[in-house]
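[Meeting: bench + compute handoff]

Bench side (C.D.) handed over the final construct sequence. Compute side (W.E.) agreed to return the predicted structure before the next meeting so the bench team could plan truncations. Sequence as handed over:
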Amino acid sequence: MATQLCWCGGALAPSVHPEYGTCSVCGTLVLQRLPESGELKGYYGIDAYWRGEVVNVSGYPSIDERARRDFGDRIPVWWRILKRYSNSTHSLLEIACSHGGFLAYAREQGVNEVVGIEVDEGTCRFAMEHFNLPHVAPGLFPDVSLPRTCFDAIVGFDVFEHFRDPEAAAKALERLLAPGGLILLQTPCYRGEDKAWEQFRPAEHLFLFNEENIRQLMARAGLEVTATFDGMFPDDMYVVCRRASELSRSARMLDQLRAITPLRRKATKAERRAAAARKG
């Protein structure tokens, strides 16, 4: 059996959790045994994962409940962050779009073309039927077929830690990014927690990053992390990326300024009322 290495090629040393190793080069936490692609496809089924594992093991609402509730909290917040960094978004790709609510919301806000990706065909059908979405592609990113070759904005909320090959995923993000485009991610940020940290989930979290090593990873893909800041939840961070070759000094500084400018991190009363008024 081959020895598991980090995405950067570094050897793994023991970590605070017995099932993860710490990269001796970049410090990324890496699951000691990565699942095969077929295992991942079987794991993320709509019934097995979104109505089973998520509810019975993680204690979160099912995909059916989330399709209603997320409009009253995370969806308007994610949209607000995206708009802060991207003034003109005509095409949007969401990796791991779940029920598809964020894509539907973005379309309501004026995005011309929205495209989603989900591992399981059943989840794709749910998103397309529930929110009348034209394109939700099945498969493990980046091995998916998409209706466009590039997008003004690419988002991935709570997905980057699930990729079996994060370097290949980062390079695919760069290829799919339109000139002047934006990538917005939300992913756990390891800050030295002990083995009881909630984000140690060996069944699904394969790589766990911090602000520095995710910068190193994106740089290998030709991307520059222009801003990182606290996520919506305490364990998370937001990561803003742009194509490195296109960045000017002023654009870089503007993103850094945006990251430290106060932003409402919760839905407003009006947004919550609008969410409650939606049909389920």
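W.E. noted at the follow-up: The first helix runs from residue 37 to 43. C.D. will use this when planning the next construct.
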